[in-house]
Amino acid sequence: MSTMAVEDVAVAPVDQGFWTRTRKVGAVLLALGLLATVLFGALATGEQARFTLSEDAAGAALKIDGTLGAILFGLVAVAAGVAMLAGLPKRWFTLVLGVGLVGFVLSFLCWQVSAAPAGQNFMPLVNIVRGTFILALPLIFGALAGVLCERSGVVNVAIEGQLLMGAFSGALFGSLSGNVWVGLVAAAIGGAFISLLLAVFSIRYLVDQVVMGIVLNLLAVGVTGFLYERLMQTDAQKYNSAPRFSNWEIPLLSDIPLLGPALFRGNIFLYLGLLLVLVIHIALFRTRWGLRTRSVGEHPTAADTLGVKVLGLRYRNVLLAGVVAGIGGASYTLALYSFTKNMIGGKGFIALAALIFGRWSPTGALLAALFFGFADQLATYLGAINSAIPSQFLAMLPYLATILAVAGLVGRVRAPAADGKPYIKG
Q1: Is residue 329 part of a domain?
Q2: Are 118 and 52 in contact (CB under 8 A)?
Q3: What pLDDT, in 10s, does the model give residues 230-247?
Q4: Global pTM value
């Protein structure tokens, strides 16, 4: 097995003629840049847009005239779009696209911050960064669960149910025991239970994996909703008052401007999520287990020929994915909120989108999760400053970002070749 090399082969784009994918994206980016320059520039005010490097309006800040900033950053997006339309080399695509999108977002923020009511025309960057990571946490855990499953050849649409069962189990057993660690273990077991059902029916009985995932999501919603009404609503003090993990401050690192207070004054879920990204990435691409996992997800027959126990490895990885997702669900009920019915609210499906957007890579999934977390945090911030944008649209912002990212930015990607295909040993 050690001599077997498994490579991720990218599918070459098939765009032909003038309108390649780069030029199409460039045209969209140019339109967004013109919109930002003209519309956001006109709606912004002459008030300063302040981006403070703290948790409030005090302290050092980056300042720019609202109208000037909206126009200037809009022109950055225009320039990025023009560069793509001019036939940008492929190796610069991601960088220029990122610069253009950042320019568009900053133009939008200059309008919103400068037009905010007096006393609210500032954006506390520490709070934005901290909120982005907090809101991205369940997405990070969920996307990592998807990586573990789909790199093994099993489609994991049940991330929503795994997160929900983890949140419920953590709240229930944490409340009954009065011990936050018991709640964390119970959350991991709850997520693993959903994964066990996925593994048995998909791997052993060859049930369609997508259909099975949807069924398990509905099962988790039904079971947790029923027990919530029968137990937690009738006696919340006993069944829905789990203790919370406290924040842990890391000396010296927590004093780093901007990132320090946001990243190094967090709870165990923040540190564990970032650590798992690193560990799974190294394990997946630098260890024998990772080589075997990728081979099972790409060419299970060849892996079986070389002595890899394909079904056993899939079982183990799917169960491990459930443990990871269950812990992600506990980040709600053991750190932030009490349990409520269907409290995950579609985050499992956004985690699935982050998995695809991140191209089935742990680090890519992390970046995608942070992108969606920022969209969620931005909606919260705009609501707090009484933005003129309707609240209904703000509530849709994370989901719109998901659709745009997967449909427009991710481009052509290739899932593991055996993903979703049951393996029948000959």
Answers
A1: yes
A2: no
A3: 999 999 999 999 999 988
A4: 0.89
